[in-house]
């Protein structure tokens, strides 16, 4: 290991794509980046992936592999003036036959105007542009910029890749890591696919002068444990809540518990989770189990009163209840159909038979005429019309043959049959 004072992660950064760990979809045979290098012709590229997966490393290795000048920039600290300055320098290099790879980290931090500033230089080939982002490009980058770039999706490094990185670290530094076999595997899992976190941790361990190899528990005591990735507002946030929702809908209770635990250990606000679970109780369970909404509100209140960790049991109770409940989205469909009909039909008056007539004039106008008081009928059902006369009767709610909706369907079928008999008699 040299006397260079740079961080270990920078010292060990690969120089070519052949040295980069993982990302076989991009770097393997016929991969997008591999083909660029083999053809010695780079295209504008957006690298999208989680922290520590190798976005900057791949960009640097690409520049080395095709012998281009690498110009790094961060969208957090740079602006339009910095872009123009970098481009002017690139124009001078181009005059002497040197190409420029302009790398902008956190490209999603640039606003529309800043992103648009890049467009002419991408089109005329002044620079080859590579942008790195942890956010979904389709949500955070302009269509004009995206249309001029390929998008390469990077995955977190797998455990085998991280173990290999530990081996490379020992070879590079000439030192043995103070970890037993179980602790090495434990640290790889703790890194959660993030090579930068792993290298920073390894650098600390190599410099800490431990007297013996650490066990997994001793490793936890020696370093701060890394929380699972959950950015609370970005892509990972929505990915995890989507996983919760879809697992519950599939009645996979164990998977739902796992994804909720991922969100909680990642620092997600429990109130957000309870809000989404309450929504699930209404939208996806509905009247197939009318108790679901009551359970959602009750467990939500219990958590607010108890807090964590005691309230975590209430959260688990709700997840298990919703996962095992019969599912029906017919209420959701019914209200949307009713809204659509309300917009379509406009301001039609209710039929006069179900309108009150508190004044003589309203009675003379026919308000309340023909109204039947249901409790006075033999069956407790009159079958009278309650839709606007110009609209006709429509069906919005059609329950499924599951859970409590099976009973509701029996009631509706009974009333519909009775309504048909009453209408036939009146014809």
Which SSEs are present, and which pair or pack?
Layout: H1 8-11, H2 24-27, H3 32-39, E1 45-48, H4 55-65, E2 69-74, H5 80-95, E3 100-105, H6 112-123, E4 128-133, H7 137-140, H8 143-146, E5 150-153, H9 159-173, H10 181-191, H11 195-207, H12 216-222, H13 235-249, H14 253-265, H15 270-285, H16 291-306, H17 312-324, H18 330-345, H19 360-364, H20 405-426
Parallel strand pairs: 1-4, 1-5, 2-3, 3-4
Explain this structure to me?
The protein contains 20 helices and five strands. The longest helix has 22 residues, at 405-426. The chain is of the alpha/beta class and 427 residues long. Helix content is 53%, strand content 6%. Strands 2-3-4-1-5 form a five-stranded parallel beta sheet, with helices on both faces. Helix 13 packs parallel to helix 15 (270-285) and helix 14 packs antiparallel against helix 17.
